[in-house]
Each structure stands twice: as C-alpha cells, then as structure tokens.
C-alpha cells in the first residue's frame, strides 16, 4: 500500500484515537508549540474569510501563536491580530455569505502590486441558508457566486496557500428556532456544489484550491457536544487549527513526528555511496556464487570413459571462502538496509501516531508473561546470574520495553519509572558481566576489546550511514560502549588486579576497592559538573559521536540518568565472586543460596523492597524530581529482583527459553525498532497494512523479529572476519577501519558544507 499524497489525506480523512486525539489517515500529525508556530509563520500574513464558524477557527489558530488571546471583539466584524516579535499578521474578515462583497475583496488581492496573503482560509454557507430560509433559489445563487469566485481563488493559489473549508454538520435537535432551517441535508447540498465547482477549470496542480473537508469528519463525532448545535466544541476547533498548521508548516519545519505533507528527504552523498557499495556486494556475491556452482558441477563425481573408474572431486578445498562469506553478509545486509530505508525514509509505507491506553500496554504484557512461563526449561548450570538466566532477563525486559514504546506508555508516569529501572538493569548487567570477565579471565588484550566494540556498534554505524542519523541518536549503544571502556580502563590501568593475583594476597582486594572508590568519585564529580562533562565530550573527534542537535546536553542527560548503576553492577560482581570463592553461598541444584533462615529473611526483605519501590514509582507526580532520585534508588529493585530470582534453588535452576531466545538478540531488537517496527525515528508506528491495526502489528512484528535475528547472525559472522585473533592481522584490520572512518568523516564534512 503506497502512502500517496499525505497532504490530501490530512485534509480529507482520519479517525479519533480515544476522545480528543485525531489520527489522519496514513501519516503523523505534529503538535506545534507556540515557539514552533512563530518560527514557521515568521513574516507571514494569514487571512480567514467567512462567518462565525470561520471566526472560531481563526481564534483557535492564533492561540497556537499566542495562547493568552481571548475571544473578544466585534462578533459581526473584522478582527485583526498581530505578533510583532515574529512579524506575523492574522486577520479575520467578516463575510458570512459568498456574494459580491466577498468576491470584490478576493479580487483586490489578484490585482496590481497589492501584497497577497500567504495563507487564505475561506468558508461560508449557513448564513445563506438561514437568511433565505433554506430556499432552492439561495442554493442556485450560491453556485453562481462560487463559480465567479473560483477562478480568483485559483489564481491566488499559484502563489499562496488557499483553503476552502466545507460546512460542518449541525446537531439539529439543539438548534434554536431561528436556525431550524439549517439542516444537514441543505449543508450537504452546499458542500457538494462547492466541491464540484472549485478547481473545475484549473489544470495546473499548483493552482488548486485545497478543500478542507476533514472538519466534517471531526464534527460528525463531536457536534453533539456543541453548546448551540451549530458551533463546534473548543477541542474540535483546536484540532482543525492544528491540522491547518501541519498542512502549511510541516514542509518548512520538518518535524520528526509530523510525516503529513513532508516531502521525501533527498539522498545524501554518504547514502549514495552506501547504496553503490551494497549493490556491488550483491552483484559480487551473485558472480562468485555462479562461479562456485559451475566449478562444483565440473568437479562432481563422474565416470572416466577411458578407464571406466569414477573420478572424485579435489579434497581439501574450503566450501566457502572468506571473500564469499563477506559478500554474502553484505548482500543480506544490503537487502535489509533497503527495507529500513523504505520503511522510515521513503514515503512508501504509512505511519501513524501512538495512542496510549492501559489495555494496549498491560494486555500484551500479561500475554508474553504467560508465554514465557509456558516455555520453561532446566538450566545447564545453577549459578547466580548464569548465562541462560541473564539471557532470559534481557529477553523479558526487552519485550516489555518494546510494548512500552509501541503503546506510547511514556505518557503514563508509573510505567515510565518502571521502564527506567529496566534500562538501568541492562546497564547493571553491563557492569556485572564485563567486570566478571576481566576479574576471572584477566584478559585485557586488544582482541577482546575490539570484539566487544564491534558487536555493540556495527549495526548502529551502518544505520547512521543508511538512515542519515548521528551516532548519539541511538543513545543506548553509545551508553554501553562508553561504560564498557570505563570498566576496561578501571581494571586495566596499573596495577592490574585480577582474581588470580588477589587470591595470593588479600590486600589486592583492598586495592581493587580503592579503584572502585576512585571510579565512584569521578562519576559523582561529572554528574554534578555539567560544564566539565561537556568539555570532555566537546573535543573532536568525541564531539562528532556524542553531539545531537549541535550540543552534548542529550548525552549528558542520558549518562546522568543511570550514572551509578554500572558501578553497582561491578560492586555486586566483586562481592558475589568473593563469596563464591570462599564457598559462603550454596549454588547446588535445588539448594537455597544461603541457610534456610538467612534465605527466608533475605527473601522477605527483597519482596518488601521490590514492592516498596513499585509503590514509590507508582506514586510519582513529577518526572523531573523522580528522575533525580532514580540513579540512587533504582539499584534497590534490581538487587531485590536478583535475590528473589536466585535465593530459592528451584527458581534458580529453571529458565524461560522463550525469553532467553529474545535475550540473545536484545540489542538488535532495541535498535531495529527505531525504523522497522516504530516509525519516524520511534515517534510513530509503522503501518504496512492500513485499516487492520492488530493484523498490522502481527505482520510488522514478525518481519521486525526476523530481521533482528538475521542482523545478529550477520554481526557474529562479520566479527570473526573483521576482528581476527592474530595480532598482526588484527592491526591491519584496525588500520583499514581507521581509514574507513577517516573517509566517512571526509564525506560527512563535504555533505555538511553542501547543506550550508
């Protein structure tokens, strides 16, 4: 289903999500703030011409520029409005009937050097019905008058945006006696006449008068809430004004969450190069595959005609060369990236706004929890936070976060605060996992570092190129990357303290604790010194990675939000491994972690702590204040969950294979959702099948999960090729990667220069 002309859809069709949220067909509507409206309309002149209904629309429109405006002034007269700070003029001209007076005013703008308004909004009919008592003669005269005005409006539409507002239906039961002749049947007849006559003579697409018919649909749902049966309630008028603002401003302001009326962004130089690279990879892979296929046929066992013996193919030749595997990976990746681009950059598929309801979030949560419990298996080992358990933990957290994003649950503060704990738990696992590896293995080699960095960043780097987005846009990957480097630096810097060394002398444990205290001090200092933090990350080339919209504030905010949790993960790993080494915990199958009494006490404290945090998070009233407390208290619920999950032996010895499967591709799921499950960079929802929301979610989810799984496999395959174990080969690859990023920076600079 092609998206088509989203402006046409915005002006003519849509539906209500809930009571007040309007969803245009196929595209997303941006909610303009006063500052954005002013920036869009700077030095512009807007004119509303018509009756009392158009006057209502005029007031709703100017309130988008200045919310302090009150609906005062002459009811049956002209009303001027001016915002001198932005040089914006908005006028309402009282012309309740389509007649000679209206024609003369419109004609004056088409003559000579008179300044034409940039936006003209016209509409009238109910006064003609009322004054002439709904007579057929009045309708005939209305048709004649519109016929005389239409060419003038079309002439103005060449250089200005001209909108004809169709008449909204009325709620006939509420109309006063003096308005009883205004029936919906009459209104339909007038609307039909206007639509038929307007643009009938115009062949130039640029000279078309835009018919604003969406207000009819809005009125059909809300007119019964009208005070007099004729005029729309305020919320409906505000929706119409917002639609009008989107039609005009989206192509100027280009908001991410306003896909209606936005043209497809042009391909950048880097995107063109990426397209050529993937195309050549696909062609190269096909050529090599054909060559190998022909060679296989030639070498296939056959009978020698002279000796009568069977020939055998050459032995020892590898089935798949490194080059073929590389091209195969890039071939698949190229096809997948094409899908990414089509979903979220080309105007091919539809996009819709999110709309939160409690059922849209909690019902899927219950459903996946039931599925997760259904697929329960025994673990291979029964250690605390064993591999299956951490995969399970990542899996169910990722699924909850995905449901949170697609349902728009960020508007509900209690859910938001609990999701913040899940993000913190990911970072806790980062601290726990990497600390455990370095502490036990003592492997601080370049190979390990490069493997981790490649697996974390490969997909994001490709998306930055293909989707034309900065690295910091995918904020979670920079976050875990920086924390990995911090963990590595903390443990690798002299003196290197690992478990093997510490077992020989207990003093090394105090040395490690001293390192952790130094790390905590640095974190504390940077979290309360925004200036120092921004200076560090404003130096080139760090600034190229961590700037978003020209500054590093977003990066500072994201880092600060979970600043202590990685440290908590490292500290927990240190304490746990020390207890394990001294055999102070029991990790046998079915055994409680501690003695029965201690286990019961800790379990009780954990449950109470878990519930206490949930009660606190659910009672949050102010997001800013709760975010300030979050870094210090999130560890309470994380530790409580770990103890509840691991103290009882029977709970520790089982895991959900369903959640663990998703856990293995959790990073790919988190990143891929930006463009092929959600839309408009996570602001909306991708619509592959319009009109069937549930079926659409099923289809898009299936494709999304398959793609994430495939990308995970591609990343693993490429990691083996790009990051080899041999140090000399690895050094060459690192030089190639440095050359790649230098070239990327060069083309990026060229791109920025051409934009400016």
TrEMBL record:
Record bears the keyword Acyltransferase: yes
Boundaries of every NXPE C-terminal domain copy: 22-72
GO cellular component: Golgi membrane
InterPro entries membership: Cas1_AcylTrans_dom, NXPE4_C
Keyword Glycoprotein appears in the UniProt entry: yes
Keywords annotated in UniProt: Acyltransferase, Glycoprotein, Golgi apparatus, Membrane, Transferase, Transmembrane, Transmembrane helix
Catalytic activity: a ganglioside GD3 (d18:1(4E)) + acetyl-CoA = a ganglioside Ac-O-7-GD3(d18:1(4E)) + CoA; CMP-N-acetyl-beta-neuraminate + acetyl-CoA = CMP-N-acetyl-7-O-acetyl-beta-neuraminate + CoA; CMP-N-acetyl-beta-neuraminate + acetyl-CoA = CMP-N-acetyl-9-O-acetyl-beta-neuraminate + CoA
Cellular location(s): Golgi apparatus membrane
Family: Belongs to the PC-esterase family. CASD1 subfamily.
Alphabetical list of Pfam families matching this protein: Cas1_AcylT, NXPE4_C
Protein name per UniProt: N-acetylneuraminate (7)9-O-acetyltransferase
Parts of the chain that traverse the membrane: 273-291, 325-343, 355-375, 395-416, 446-466, 473-495, 507-526, 561-579, 599-617, 659-680, 692-711, 731-750
EC number: 2.3.1.45
UniProt GO MF annotations: N-acetylneuraminate 9-O-acetyltransferase activity
Residue span, Cas1p 10 TM acyl transferase domain: 253-734
EC category: transferase
Mode of membrane association: Multi-pass membrane protein
GO biological process, one term: carbohydrate metabolic process
């Amino acid at each position: 289903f092609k998206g088509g002309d989203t402006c046409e859809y915005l002006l003519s069709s849509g539906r209500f999500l809930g009571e007040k949220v309007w969803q245009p067909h196929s595209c997303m509507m941006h909610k303009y703030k006063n500052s954005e409206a002013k920036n869009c309309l700077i030095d512009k002149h807007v004119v509303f011409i018509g009756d009392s209904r158009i006057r209502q629309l005029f007031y709703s429109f100017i309130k988008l520029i200045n919310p302090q405006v009150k609906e005062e002034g002459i009811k049956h007269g002209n009303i001027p409005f001016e915002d001198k700070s932005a040089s914006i003029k908005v006028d309402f001209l009282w012309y309740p009937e389509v007649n000679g007076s209206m024609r003369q005013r419109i004609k004056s703008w088409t003559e000579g050097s008179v300044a034409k308004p940039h936006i003209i909004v016209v509409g009238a009919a109910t006064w003609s019905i009322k004054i002439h008592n709904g007579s057929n003669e009045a309708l005939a005269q209305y048709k004649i008058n519109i016929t005389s005005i239409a060419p003038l409006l079309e002439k103005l539409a060449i250089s200005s945006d001209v909108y004809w507002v169709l008449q909204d239906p009325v709620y006939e039961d509420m109309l006063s006696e003096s308005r009883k002749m205004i029936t919906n049947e009459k209104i339909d007849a007038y609307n039909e006449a206007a639509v038929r006559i307007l643009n009938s003579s115009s062949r130039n697409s640029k000279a078309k008068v835009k018919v604003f018919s969406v207000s009819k649909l809005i009125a059909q749902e809300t007119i019964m809430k009208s005070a007099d049966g004729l005029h729309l309630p305020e919320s409906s008028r505000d929706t119409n004004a917002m639609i009008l603002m989107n039609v005009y401003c989206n192509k100027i302001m280009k908001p991410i969450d306003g896909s209606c009326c936005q043209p497809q962004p042009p391909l950048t130089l880097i995107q063109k190069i990426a397209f050529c690279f993937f195309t050549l990879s696909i062609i190269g892979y096909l050529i090599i595959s054909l060559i190998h296929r022909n060679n296989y046929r030639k070498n296939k066992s056959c009978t020698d005609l002279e000796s009568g013996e069977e020939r055998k193919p050459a032995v020892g030749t590898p089935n798949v060369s490194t080059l073929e595997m590389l091209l195969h990976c890039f071939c698949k990746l190229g096809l997948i990236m094409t899908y990414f681009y089509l979903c979220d950059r080309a105007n091919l598929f539809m996009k819709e706004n999110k709309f939160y309801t409690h059922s849209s979030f909690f019902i899927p949560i219950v459903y996946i929890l039931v599925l997760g419990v259904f697929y329960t298996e025994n673990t291979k080992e029964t250690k605390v936070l064993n591999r299956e358990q951490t995969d399970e933990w990542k899996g169910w957290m990722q699924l909850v976060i995905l449901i949170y994003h697609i349902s728009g649950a960020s508007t509900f503060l209690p859910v938001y605060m609990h999701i913040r704990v899940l993000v913190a738990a990911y970072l806790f696992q980062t601290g726990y996992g990497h600390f455990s590896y370095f502490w036990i293995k003592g492997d601080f080699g370049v190979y390990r570092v490069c493997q981790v960095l490649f697996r974390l960043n490969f997909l994001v780097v490709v998306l930055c190129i293909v989707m034309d987005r900065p690295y910091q846009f995918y904020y979670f990957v920079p976050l875990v990357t920086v924390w990995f480097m911090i963990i590595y630096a903390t443990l690798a810097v002299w003196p290197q303290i690992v478990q093997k060394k510490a077992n020989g002398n207990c003093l090394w444990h105090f040395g490690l604790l001293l390192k952790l205290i130094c790390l905590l001090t640095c974190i504390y200092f940077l979290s309360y010194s925004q200036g120092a933090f921004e200076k560090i990350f404003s130096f080139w080339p760090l600034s190229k990675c961590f700037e978003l919209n020209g500054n590093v504030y977003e990066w500072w905010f994201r880092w600060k939000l979970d600043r202590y949790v990685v440290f908590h993960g490292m500290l927990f790993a240190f304490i746990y491994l020390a207890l394990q080494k001294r055999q102070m915990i029991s990790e046998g199958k079915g055994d409680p972690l501690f003695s029965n009494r201690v286990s019961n006490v800790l379990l009780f404290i954990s449950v109470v702590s878990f519930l206490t945090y949930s009660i606190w998070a659910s009672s949050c009233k102010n997001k800013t204040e709760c975010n300030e407390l979050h870094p210090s208290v999130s560890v309470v619920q994380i530790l409580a969950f770990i103890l509840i999950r691991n103290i009882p032996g029977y709970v520790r010895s089982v895991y959900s294979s369903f959640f663990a499967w998703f856990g293995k591709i959790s990073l790919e799921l988190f990143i891929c959702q930006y463009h092929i499950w959600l839309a408009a960079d996570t602001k909306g929802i991708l619509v592959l099948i319009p009109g069937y929301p549930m079926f659409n979610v099923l289809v898009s989810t299936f494709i999304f999960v398959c793609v994430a799984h495939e990308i995970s496999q591609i990343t693993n395959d490429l990691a083996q090729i790009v990051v080899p174990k041999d140090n000399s080969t690895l050094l060459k690859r690192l030089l190639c990667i440095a050359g790649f990023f230098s070239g990327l920076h060069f083309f990026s600079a060229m791109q920025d220069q051409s934009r400016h």
